[in-house]
Design brief:
three-stranded antiparallel sheet, 10 helices, alpha+beta, 9 strands
């Protein structure tokens, strides 16, 4: 952040509950010498009523008194003000000095206008330089994501960053770039349900890893499908016969929505047969319980799903359930 971007404001409180009597340990002098803060005095006694700025030898004692002479309080108590000394500065005023606090953290501008945030150059063009045949549209600027992540975990080199809309994989790329710059060990988890994950998300992050973090590794996994298998089959079905067969299979073996009584559906065979292919697909998909699209963790050991021992071990490791 540049000096111009630092947000300076009075260290002195104002508004509601800003009076000296609201927090007695917040009324003390800030000691200034040659335009610099050199220390902090003791909390003033109740019967002491100093001037806003008092000169004592070569030093100035600055108190949290406003322009109207009202005794207020500093925003930090005497016992904690030392910890923020580095972000304080002295401001010259008509009758002496005032103290300001500069905040270069926590608050970010609403609009970012730097050219590095250009999604065309550092999003689309950057992605094409890694994956020339990519068909992904509107990837974010890498530097936009870098700065967003750094704002949250820039000081945590061991953070785990979760992006549940993985998209083209910019988040993973950004995490690796941040690690490269500060020798961090941050990890990332990208979640994506669209089919471009194997054409864009994964290849991009593998390529970046091989380029800037060759000693690292990436694990790619998919959820074990349950009702999602039927969704896929219905989506890919092309004929009335295929859909009729699928309906029979789903009624016999699928997880049906609690809103549906399978026994009643058999009486509407003629109505189903009269539907168009697209309407049949919509009808079948409405029957399925959407909460059972994938195998739940609690069903990991259910033999009906045929989950391999290796997949079971990895799943337990991912959720921190080893030995359970």
């Amino acid at each position: 952040m540049t000096p111009e971007e630092i947000d300076w404001s009075p260290l002195r409180n104002w508004g509601g509950e800003s009076l000296r009597t609201d927090a007695k340990n917040c009324f003390y002098p800030v000691i200034v010498e040659h335009g610099k803060i050199v220390g902090f005095g003791d909390v003033s006694k109740d019967d002491e009523h100093p001037q806003q700025t008092e000169k004592r030898d070569n030093q100035y004692y600055v108190y949290p008194i406003d322009g109207k002479g009202v005794e207020r309080k500093w925003r930090y108590a005497r016992q904690t003000v030392e910890s923020i000394r580095d972000i304080l500065r002295v401001k010259t005023i008509k009758n002496g000095f005032d103290i300001e606090i500069g905040k270069d953290f926590g608050t970010y501008k609403t609009v970012w206008t730097d050219s590095k945030y250009d999604a065309s150059v550092n999003g689309t063009q950057l992605l094409k330089s890694i994956l020339p045949d990519t068909q992904f549209t509107y990837p974010k600027s890498l530097y936009n994501v870098i700065d967003c992540i750094a704002a949250c975990v820039g000081n945590d080199k061991d953070a785990i960053v979760l992006d549940f809309f993985g998209g083209s994989g910019t988040t993973g790329h950004a995490v690796m770039e941040i690690n490269k710059n500060d020798n961090g060990h941050r990890r990332f988890i990208l979640v994506e349900q669209m089919d471009y994950i194997e054409q864009d998300t994964l290849p991009r992050n593998v390529a970046v890893m091989r380029s800037i973090a060759p000693k690292d590794s990436i694990v790619y996994v998919e959820l074990a499908k349950d009702n999602q298998r039927y969704v896929d089959d219905v989506t890919n079905a092309e004929t009335d016969a295929d859909l009729t067969t699928l309906l029979e299979r789903i009624l016999a073996t699928g997880f049906i929505s609690s809103k549906v009584n399978p026994a009643e559906i058999a009486g509407y065979a003629a109505d189903f047969a009269a539907l168009s292919v697209e309407d049949k697909k919509r009808f079948i998909l409405e029957l399925l319980d959407k909460n059972m699209l994938y195998v739940n963790l609690c069903d990991l050991d259910d033999e009906e799903y045929g989950i391999s021992d290796a997949d079971k071990a990895f799943t337990r490791s991912f959720y921190g359930l080893e030995g359970k």
